[in-house]
């Protein structure tokens, strides 16, 4: 089957969904899209997406329905509010939103009860990855549903990993981002301690990046300006990966930690620190800007 014969309904054409849907059009898929925001629909039209008047119309006669929405509530509300019933039996539902593992599992169940197939397929790689078609997809679902989704995901992303059964793609996403949040805080605390001890940022970077402190938060997204020229710290902490999104993902991780009785003191604390950082007006900064909060508090100032 050529891509021209496959119709994709795409619901949620925001910062991520818009460029992802545009890449499907470029690859030859017929894409019918819907969003609540008129500006998103205008951009979608310019990108060759057939704009329809409701989410249900995007799902009608589609072979695949992709959702890219803010939260689990949005996904479940749409699934229960007519998206599933509008699709013909056996349609493949791909939810790429980042949502609670429990919500993802509920979405799978709803899709199955309605006679459909589904995968959870959250992404990392951000808006730039969405535009460039270089996202990483973490996929949960049955083997055959993963195989059915794979060609589409490979258009929108560069790395596609089948992580396991329903909800396990979301599990991979929140576990990874919990590592990232905790490691960014640890790296930032180390730089601030180094500064207090008279150790230059560059010297600490040269040592830690070649030693056991090495990690992505240090070598790619270094929270101090200088050692890694492309890191957001060199551009007044313009994101990058916004602190608001880190707050969201750590909140999902904290829910899963609580629900599963995991004694993760650092994961829970990281969620609290990013929540405070977001709530004090820093959600639009790159998540590495948390070093400024740690530095200010260490100097007796609150931000
Ligand atoms: P966004 O807010 O830009 O886009 C979400 C879109 O969904 C909006 O345009 C909104 O109007 C639309 N929407 C909401 N309810 C709708 C409904 N009932 N019908 C149709 N459209 C509806 O958000 P985003 O940055 O594109 O993120 C989308 C998802 O991807 C989120 O779950 C986010 O956590 C995840 N994510 C984002 C990034 C990033 O860097 N932005 C990276 C990885 C994952």
Automatic annotation (TrEMBL):
GO molecular function: 3-hydroxyisobutyrate dehydrogenase activity; NAD binding; NADP binding
The 3-hydroxyisobutyrate dehydrogenase-like NAD-binding domain, residue ranges: 167-292
Pfam families associated with the record: NAD_binding_11 (PF14833), NAD_binding_2 (PF03446)
Annotated EC: 1.1.1.31
Xref: SUPFAM superfamilies: 6-phosphogluconate dehydrogenase C-terminal domain-like (SSF48179), NAD(P)-binding Rossmann-fold domains (SSF51735)
Gene Ontology BP annotations: branched-chain amino acid catabolic process
Coiled-coil segments: none
Residues forming the catalytic site: 173
Taxonomy, superkingdom: Bacteria
Reactions it catalyzes: 3-hydroxy-2-methylpropanoate + NAD(+) = 2-methyl-3-oxopropanoate + NADH + H(+)
Record key words, sorted: Branched-chain amino acid catabolism, NAD, Oxidoreductase
Residues in 6-phosphogluconate dehydrogenase NADP-binding domain copies: 7-164
Pathway: Amino-acid degradation; L-valine degradation
Family in the record: Belongs to the HIBADH-related family.
NCBIfam families: HIBADH
Protein name in UniProt: 3-hydroxyisobutyrate dehydrogenase
Organism per entry: Rhodococcus hoagii (Corynebacterium equii)
Taxonomic lineage from the root: Bacteria, Bacillati, Actinomycetota, Actinomycetes, Mycobacteriales
